[in-house]
């Protein structure tokens, strides 16, 4: 099977995710988890399909790396944009929505500066800063590697827009939970302009890596000037 057709096998990954999640939810009789599994499985299938249609694979090794890319997307989704639709449906609606301003920072470099001004920064804070500085590097790398984006500037733009989307989704989540009783989001869900800055820099890092390695430059059709 040619690599360009082999790539469609990755569509089985979101289906496996969906099947596994639904099976566990039915086993434990959890209606919220059943809805969550369905919503996230469908979302991941759509994203996987779009990436698969646009990706250019040349060899079987490319297929292995494409599987790695899709699994990275799955992990990224679970870390920052997991859709807990079922939790909202099963919770008590109060309707008293409000924006949690203490979870929003729109002043650039404030969070970063405050972190490094601490006498002894905590490990979770350091991990969060470092994580944001690396989070989307694989995204820009693989977007260029599989020629989903043809130019570095376009890959960085996609990373920037992805980061903005992540922050907006987290803003929506932290706002929506105020109108329901009994919903808790994972730690670290906030809206911070510094996250966008660090995520975009991580996208630049991915571009630097792929442009710095001659074999990869050749793979994406770029010649050193």
TrEMBL record:
Keywords, alphabetical: Membrane, Transmembrane, Transmembrane helix
Residue ranges that the Swiss-Prot or TrEMBL entry lists as coiled coil: none
Superkingdom of the organism of origin: Bacteria
Domain VanZ-like, first and last residues per copy: 69-211
Keyword Cell membrane: no
Chain ranges passing through the membrane: 7-28, 34-51, 63-85, 126-146, 153-176, 196-216
InterPro entries reported in the protein's UniProt record: Teicoplanin_resist-assoc, VanZ-like
Pfam family name, one: VanZ
Protein name listed in UniProt: VanZ-like domain-containing protein
Species of provenance: Listeria fleischmannii 1991
